[in-house]
Amino acid sequence: MKIKKAILTGGGRATRLHPITTTINKHLLPLANKPMLFHAIDKVVEAGVTDIFININPGETELQRAIGDGGHWGVRITFFEQTGGPQGVAHVVNEAAQFIGDDPFLFYLSDNILLGQVTELVSEFNSGSYDCMLALSTVPDPQRFGVPVFADDDSTLVDVLEKPSDPPNNFAVTGLYVYGPKVFFDAFKRIEKSARGEYEISSIHSLFLKEGKRVGYKEITGWWKDTGKPEDLLIASQLLMDGMPSESFVCRAALQSDTVIEGNVQVGSGTTIGPGVVLRGPVMIGENCTLKQCVIGPHVSIAHGCSIDGATIQKSIILDNTSIHLYRTISDSIIGKQVRLHEDESPIKKMIIGDKTDIVV
After folding, report:
1. Above 70 in pLDDT, residue 200?
2. Which whole-number Å values give the CA distances from 24 to 38, 229, 319, 335, in the listed order?
3. Which residues contact 331 (CB under 8 A, 6 or more apart)?
4. Are the C-beta atoms of residues 149 and 159 closer than 8 Å to each other?
5. Pairing between strand 105-108 and 171-179?
6. CA distance 221 to 297
7. SS3 for 72?
8. Residue 187: Cβ within 10 Å count
9. What confidence score (pLDDT) does residue 251 get?
């Protein structure tokens, strides 16, 4: 059956990413210089989805302005608020019941970044005539996730546990699911909140298995990253840049005679590259930036309107309209919008700096 509808997440408070997410919705944080949620939209559109429903926090307006009605992707996008406050991932899906109706659908936690195609999961779902399809990935910390339970003698899926303290294996159920008609919403009526006061999506899958529903699974090829922590954001951005084809990296700025470019480098229009600039790819620099006497890269994304003078920046994400004028090394950092970071000496590492910060060192 063709999957034409998808639910994507755009809500939550992302407190583990404070102070960055006190002033910007987590799902709009740039990974490889593109908002995180845009990567999820790209994936489901590639899989053939034409109607996307995105849950948002009450009073949210930022996502709607950034995403629009879906015309950019040639699809329809509808936003809906999660009523009654945060009540778990399964509750998010149930809030979209009026939009999904009796159709099959994809559900994608938009803060999950993956290399593989969603199309492969949909194809597996269709080929096996499943009621539900789960995407799995091996992780070093399965206690943070839903974990599948297999029969002792084979690979038959028999249960799913939510954040078990003693995981039976190193698999995690990633934030990507496919459901057949009606089954999710029928099951939601019969689950209860967990001890932490949420409707767990693992409870849905566990109920499916207990009632004999056909629940399939497919291990994600390549890599998958849940971006719950600052270091996860940095790694996801690096992985995305590493996986981009070389033709995606285009330099639209005039270069100086002493400009050094190594590897894949993308530079937006209106950006000025002054003397003494070294760009070590993969590097992505937005529009209307100014660079001089600096070394950028590898694995650096710099958003629009930034000014960099003197710094060496590695493995970092810099948001819009930030000014960094200092002869320091900055590494493994996320720096928000409109930050001013100006001069002194000695290395600066591992920063998470919120919007509109003014730092003189």
Report:
1. yes
2. 15, 15, 11, 12
3. 313, 314, 315, 316, 347, 349, 350
4. yes
5. antiparallel
6. 27
7. helix
8. 22
9. 96
d(CA 335, CA 356): 10
Strands (E), 171-221: 171-179, 215-219
CA distance 85 to 95: 12
332's tokens:
């493994």
Tokens at residue 123, please? 């194809």
8-state DSSP, 254: P
Residue 16: partners with Cβ closer than 8 Å, 6 or more residues away: 228, 229, 230
The one-letter code for the residue type at 95 is: E
Token pair recorded at residue 60: 């949210």
Q: Phi and psi dihedrals of 160, rounded to 5?
A: -135, 125
Give yes or no for a contact between 325 and 309, defined as CB atoms under 8 angstroms apart. Answer: yes
What's the rounded Cα separation, in Å, for the pair 227 and 205? 23
Q: In this predicted structure, which of 41-50, 138-147, 262-271, 296-305 has the lowest mean pLDDT?
A: 138-147
Write down the H helix ranges in 163-229: 183-188, 201-210
Which residues, listed in sequence order, are joined to residue 173 by a DSSP beta bridge? 136, 146
Between helix 36-46 and helix 118-127 the angle, nearest 10°, is: 40
Token pair 């600039």 is found at 277
CB-based burial label for 310 (10 Å; 0-12, 13-18, 19+):
middle
* 239 touches 225 (CB < 8 A): yes
Structure tokens at 105: 């659908």
Q: How many CA atoms lie within 13 A of 56 on its CB side?
A: 20
- 128: number of Cβ within 10 Å: 12
Query: What tokens appear for 9 in the block?
Result: 């997440």
Instruction: Calculate the CA 104 to chain-centre distance.
Output: 23
Name the band, by pLDDT with cuts 50, 70 and 90, for residue 221.
confident
Q: Give the tokens for residue 87.
A: 């009540």
Q: Are 301 and 319 in contact (CB under 8 A)?
A: no
Q: What are the distances in angstroms from CA 122 to CA 2, 7, 303?
A: 9, 14, 34
